[in-house]
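Box 3.1 A note on notation
Throughout this textbook, protein chains are presented in two layers. The first layer is the amino acid sequence; the second is a token string describing backbone geometry. Keep the layers aligned when reading.
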Amino acid sequence: MKALVVSVAMAITLVGGVAGYASDSDAQYPGIYVKDSVITTKVQTKLLAKHPTLLSNVRVQTDRDGNVWLSGKVPTEEAKHLAEEIASGTTGVKSVHNHIVVSPP
């Protein structure tokens, strides 16, 4: 089940990333595009693998320099910090900007 969730998340991320990124000025540089989407996918996959229900509303964006922005809502401060730790520990991530909002259920 966990593998299915991770596979689906990766597929959605890749399809969504291609559609949303195609109009961006960096789309003319394939190396930059691949790097950005790979880092984003790695972070999202690790978030869902660690705690799929707690971290499923976290959005991840990565710029061409490996800087990651986290946004969305989580129910606890601990979940917010966990998401930041996971992103920070991901290969290729240079910095993490955590804009996640804590919103108890």
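Residues 2-102 form a domain with the GMP Synthetase; Chain A, domain 3 fold (CATH 3.30.300). Residues 30-50 form the longest helix (21 residues).
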